[in-house]
Amino acid sequence: MEKSQEIPKKYTCKACDYFTNNKKDFIKHNSTRKHNLLTNPNGFVPNPNNETREYSCKCGKTYKHMSSLCNHKKKCTGTNADDLMKAVLSDNNKSINANLLLEIVKQTNEFKTLLVEQNNKINELASQNTMIQNNITTHNNSFNLNVFLNETCKDALNLMDFVNSLQLKLTDFEETGRLGYVEGISKIIVNGLKEMDVHKRPIHCTDVKRETMYVKDQDVWEKENDDKSRLTKAVKVVADKNFQQMLAWQKEYPECTVNNTQQNENFIKIMLAVLGGQTPEEDEKNREKILRNIAKEVVIDKSAC
Known about the structure:
Layout: E1 11-13, E2 18-20, H1 23-30, H2 33-39, E3 55-56, E4 62-63, H3 66-75, H4 81-88, H5 98-141, H6 145-152, H7 159-165, H8 170-179, H9 181-194, E5 203-207, E6 212-217, E7 220-223, H10 229-243, H11 246-252, H12 262-274, H13 280-297
Antiparallel strand pairs: 1-2, 3-4, 5-6, 6-7
């Protein structure tokens, strides 16, 4: 009795040595990892849903092929070797291309070399910066404020002694009318300071921006407080001395009391300026401006000390 002839299978996969009569099983087989690896020499496992896959970079660019993405990432400043490795392994089936892995190793080594070079440069710059900083510190330390004030400027006048020594003239009164209250009073005080030896001045400034002032009062050098009370008092005394010249000016120009005369108009203009602000707020602003003008003129020249 002859053996029954074997019925050939309807669906055959020679690459995998797989046979079946069931179409569903054959389709399922074609989507397996084994089948794709044996039938695809590049080792890329296609998307089972046959959808076009896009490979994206952090910088926003997208590519259809993994190799294109990897080439881009070698130049892109928004990625590194770790990102490249993740991109290679991002496929759903974790397929790995040998050439890409070699490229990753090469890029990683280059990246490490770059890091070493950058680290050496940073260390070199840090060393140079330390030397510069030390030089600056040495220069700054060469100036001692306490020594400057208490020894170099030990013979300086007290603030109020300086203010009381100012001899105002009618020209100061007239200049205030022409320049305005702030500039007029500032000029009187600054001119008085400029006529003195620097080491005899009762006021010194160490920081114009912050208006850090040092004042000699009752034979003691002290840092002026935040409300600038001592300097404010000095400004008021000078302004009062200027105002008191009104009678002398009237005596010099008697027509100033006659209405509708040129001298009367001049007198009114001068008096409006000499009186200063019309409100406490305006007076405060005027004071701040005057002190700022004074600070600029009495800044300590540390290089000359």
